[in-house]
Amino acid sequence: MTQRTVWRWLAAAERDESAAAEPGARAQTRDRFTVTPEVRRLLALWKGSVAAVHRELTARAARQSPPAAPPPSLPTLHRAIQRDLTPGERAGLAGGERAARKHDVFLARPQGWRNQAWETDHVQAPVLVDIDGKPRRPWITWFTDCATNAITGVAVTPGHPSRESVLAALRSAVLRETPTARSAGCRRKCGWTAARTSCPGQ
Questions:
Q1: How far is CA 95 from CA 36, 55, 88, 151, in A?
Q2: Taking the mean position of all CA atoms in its chain, how far away is CA 32?
Q3: How far, in Å, CA of 185 to CA of 187, rounded?
């Protein structure tokens, strides 16, 4: 950041006190270009290419009779797309749904209430412990509350996850005299996360 930039921000704050809340932000004017549904359709047609969308808008304006107002400049179009579309939306327009999943949460559960639904999963701890004289990485089975992300129950086992480890973690989640008793309770729903790959044969 240069000294000139700081002085420009100070001058803007003297003219308008609201500018001091977000220094350097562009003024919110009514005639600022925003992404329209038509621009979104063209982005999908041209697979996220902003330059191709700009060429299409320019050609459409030239074909109209009388000629319509020129479209926004290419830098303005770039800024509007960067501002109005999420990274997942931009990636999805360019590379499809699989590319969008790398940026956005996929199949996010609607916000509910405490103990409405739990999810369970297994993970292998990234540490080695002495189990019967052999170094091994234990497995952790846990239940989490979907509304609060609190860990309601947990079980640590030396071997691969099994029905017993799931039941032990569930018991820890339901009982109120365990270390996770603050979040204990009876859930309405319970879901698995990649259950078949985590617990083969069960």
A1: 21, 21, 10, 36
A2: 28
A3: 6
Statement: the pTM of the whole predicted model exceeds 0.70: no
Among the ranges given (93-102, 139-148, 159-168), the one the predictor scored with the smallest mean pLDDT: 93-102
Question: CB 163: neighbour CB atoms within 10 A?
Answer: 10
Are 158 and 141 within 8 A, CB to CB? no
How many other C-beta atoms are found inside a 10 Å radius of the C-beta of residue 7?
10
Let me know if 78 is exposed, middle or buried by CB neighbors in 10 A (0-12, 13-18, 19+).
middle
* The pairing of beta strand 117-124 with beta strand 189-192: parallel
Residues with Cβ < 8 Å from 159, sequence gap 6 or more?
139
Which residues sit opposite 189 in a β-bridge?
Answer: 117
> For residue 75, is the peptide bond before it cis, meaning its omega torsion is within 30 degrees of 0?
no
What's the rounded Cα separation, in Å, for the pair 17 and 111? 37
